[in-house]
Amino acid sequence: MSSYLFDQLRFVRSNTLKLVDGLEDERSEIIPAPLNNHIKWNLGHIYFIHERNAFRFVKEKEDWVMPESFPSLFSPGTKPENGQKMPVELSEIVRLLENQIDRIESTLKDRLKEKTEPYTTSMGLHLSSVEEFLSCCLYHEGMHLERINVIKKLI
Asked: What span, in angstroms and rounded, lies between the C-alpha atoms of 78 and 74?
């Protein structure tokens, strides 16, 4: 039986993917003024944070699926160079996003209450269990979903 948390993660992810369905790679890299990133960066960043929250802090390195270029492109504090083509296609990021929640659930569905390496987010939220890290992903993806929506309207 699926946890409501995983249902929520799928709901938010479904909305993220719907928002970018049919978007061309070139348009996904437009950075509208006054913003400092684009749709592709937001999508890659969502993927990066989910992987980190689900697998790194839980010490599940073997389930971690992270393309080599992603940390330098999509970690917190990174931003794309305006006008410079990113070395990853939008379709690759979308493909990774489409399968991510299923991978997370299959690894962690029976471990939600498990304690993890503690971490405090940049906003000051203290996380110390699998469930807390995954719940934080809901807020994080929702925030970037809205940013993608704004960028899409501006381009």
From this structure: 6
